[in-house]
Amino acid sequence: MEILQLLLSGFASGCVYGLIALGFVLIYKATEAVNFAQGDMMMFGAFITIWLTNSDYNGLPFWLSVPIMMLIMGSFGYLIERIFLRQVIGQSQIAIAILTIALGFILRFVAGAIWGHEPHYLESPMVGKNIYFYQAVLGMAEIFVILVTIFLTFILYVFFARTKLGVSMVAASQNQLAAFYVGIPVNKMQSFAWVIAGILAGIAGMLFSAKGSVDPITGLLGIKAFAAAVIGGFGSLPGALVGGLIIGLIEPFSGRYLPSGFSHLVPYIVLVLVLILRPHGLFSQVSIKKV
């Protein structure tokens, strides 16, 4: 039964990593830029959910706080793209990377200034509730994280495969010039990609805070999510989720069966092995650009 509990914990953590990694991939596919502030946006979404929900702050019902948080984070993603990223269009990838890293530092500073640096916990309906399966104790928070991720994955699949807006976003990400020639507003598609990435970061933050504590340093989880995106294949949305699950499952098992301290190292060892054996990731979508 210990293995079942490790699997559940790993899947729940992997779902959070996968959702953050989805934000990385969405922005990269839409703009060919890497948003190194994605993990800090997740942290900010967690704090906003706590601020809206907890009785110490606004005390709104959890099921009302979540859509408000999603609206705030979607608007936040749009403003980041509109105010900051659009001003550096045409600059080098290094300049964009440095800009997003700086944004991450700013988000951590603002979160610490507003909510402090001590751990915060979300007062969600799942707190302290468990399901007993034989000798295993399965936390409702972990089950909630997994179910929400499955539902969200289905929604994203339908959106990108079946809706006009989603298909337009895919077309713009694959060939911006061709998309522009057929009348797709590429700039609007890029802005919408940031909106979705902001919402995904907020949901990931909400899910993370539902099962553990949050502080400004939580945003550094984006490093693991970046590793998950690379493992899965940086241009692949399914690969981002699979990479997140791989990282999430490795951590609890390595923490349980390997010497102390190795659990945080093993995911990066796996990343190095994947880059050596399959440089473009497990679900690579390699394309050749003609110039």
Instruction: Give the helix level as a range of percent.
Output: 55-70%
How would you sum up the global shape?
globular
Count of strand segments: 2
Encode the helix/strand succession as letters.
HHHHEEHHHHHHH
Coarse structural class? mainly alpha
Low-confidence stretches: none
User: What integer is the average pLDDT?
Assistant: 89
Strand content: under 5%
Biggest sheet record: 2 strands, antiparallel
> Strands of the biggest beta sheet: in what spatial order?
1-2
Report on the architecture of this protein.
The chain has 291 residues and is mostly helical. It has one domain (2-219). It is 69% helix and 3% strand. It has a two-stranded antiparallel ribbon with strand order 1-2. Strand 1 and strand 2 (136-139) form a beta hairpin. The mean pLDDT is 89.
